[in-house]
Amino acid sequence: MSSPTFPGLEGATALVTGSSRGIGAGIADALQAAGARVLRHGSPAHASQVQDDSMILADLSTEQGIGELTAAVHARIEQLDILVNNAGVELPAPLTAMDGASLRQTFDVNVVAPILITGSLVPLLRQGRPGTVINVTSIHDSVPYAGNVAYVASKAALDAAGRTMALELAASGIRVNSIAPGAIETDINRDVIEEMGRDRFESWIPLGRVGAIDDLVGAVLFLASDASRYVTGSRILIDGGYSQALLRYGLTGEEVARNSAREPPADRRS
Questions:
Q1: Which pLDDT does position 203 carry in this prediction?
Q2: Biggest alpha carbon distance in the chain?
Q3: Which strand ranges, in their side-by-side order, compose the sheet holding 37-42?
Q4: Which of 24, 71, 121, 179 has its CB 3.0 to 4.6 Å from that of 18, i.e. a possible disulfide?
Q5: Which pTM was predicted?
Q6: Neighbouring C-beta atoms of residue 195, cutoff 10 Å
Q7: Please, is 40 exposed, middle or buried when counting C-beta atoms within 10 Å of its C-beta (0-12, 13-18, 19+)?
């Protein structure tokens, strides 16, 4: 993977959650290619896919798992320059079929974990150069779609939490920003895109194509680097204009009803 050059990444230390595959793996690879030392995290459920013995396995749907991850990070490093809260889960269900267990799991992984992980790692982010936190939200933090209220609500909560973190941590020089991906093709959601019809799906995106993981790299490296040293509390849309088209034209009425049960994940499942 090729990476643009940004100042301050050479020799930096980073943690990317949910980086055993998909978008998280792409972000971790890009940071490493830019010269950073990267700690990677994966779910124990994906242990069979993990080839790197240095990867930290932890279940972020539980406080015990969150504690295991942060304890492992504290044990391995004395300074953290970049934290990417990427791990997430998406469990689509119509409102009338939603159950408390899936709702809690979605919020535990998508909201509770990033907040607790960031809070625990603040002492490491305060060491050395001012640290930076990047939360991976979704275009659906502001553009909802039917049949996935838990995911949409969790991403909106993470966006609000990130902006609040930015206020609270600014006095320590720690910056907090987010990227909001649109339709990004990964091994996990490729089949769903094909099932919906790639041509039809891409007709909804003004730039005319589903995004690739590489399309996220520049924004992540910018936010992780000194090039964005005066940027905090910001959100960068990376969606080829998809969210603007949804706002302008929308998948409304009958089309939403037809597609809500099989709408593809806007960014990823990890």
A1: 86
A2: 54
A3: 56-57, 37-42, 13-16, 82-85, 132-136, 175-181, 235-238
A4: 24
A5: 0.89
A6: 11
A7: buried
Does residue 202 form part of some domain? yes
pLDDT tens per residue across span 80-92: 999 999 999 999 8
pLDDT tens-digit readout, 177-201? 999 999 898 877 787 788 878 888 7
User: Is the pLDDT confidence value at 238 over 60?
Assistant: yes
- Active-site residue (options: 151, 230, 242, 249): 151
- Domain of residue 239: give its range: 13-259
Amino acid at residue number 102: S
d(CA 52, CA 132): 25
- Mean pLDDT score of the chain: 88
Q: How many domains does the chain have?
A: 1
Gap between the Cα atoms of 237 and 225, Å rounded: 18
pLDDT at 266: 42
Neighbours of 151 (CB within 10 A): 27
pLDDT tens figures, 213-225: 999 999 999 999 9
Note whether residue 240 is domain-resident.
yes
* 3 dihedral zone (left: phi>0; alpha: psi -120 to 50; beta): beta
Does residue 59 belong to any structural domain of this protein?
yes
- 121 within domain boundaries: yes
Looking at residue 251, which CATH number applies to its domain? 3.40.50.720
Taken as a whole, the chain contains a residue count of 270
Respond yes or no: is residue 151 known to be catalytic.
yes
pLDDT in tens, 247-265: 766 554 334 334 444 443 4
